Amino acid sequence: QTVYVKVGGKPGGGIGNYELAVTSDRIAAGDDYADTLRLALKEQSSLLSLVDGSGSVEGSINRTDDIDLFRLVVPSNGRFEILVKASGGLNPRLDLLDATGRLVAGDDAGGQGVDAFISRVLTGGDQIFLKIQGLSDTMGGYSLEFRPFQTVGQTIPDDVGDSVEEARALN
Q1: What is the pLDDT of residues 98-117, one digit of tens each?
Q2: Fewer CB within 10 Å, N or C, the chain?
Q3: Distance in angstroms (rounded) separating the CA atoms of residues 121 and 149
Q4: Global pTM?
């Protein structure tokens, strides 16, 4: 589709620089989930469905600039875990965003058994977004899981190294 755009100054004159941004109102062909908050609000595929407070989805980062965004409404007050397990060479970054798109928490070194992990106290009824992208131009598949925090019979991923060699910088 060809689109023409006319840009002009104010009546009576005016010159200067300007920036033109063009966005789509749908998910790009070949992409699996929304790349922007606006699309994540619009597209049903970006709504993470929850059953008994938990939900999961599989997706892929299929371009180096690809971002996958999911939205959900927090089911109740309490601590929740968000886990990403990657495949196919993907080194994922996971971000938790509030309803305005502001970064609340993020991780890219999940710990034992996961590639990204966030554990956070959330407020029931709040709308949040989960953002996944590849670091260092990596691509591949992933599984994303959102679940209530549980400690009985469950190993909690250790997201910080136990030695100097495994240490990581503070954000």
Answers
A1: 999 999 999 998 666 689 99
A2: N
A3: 9
A4: 0.72
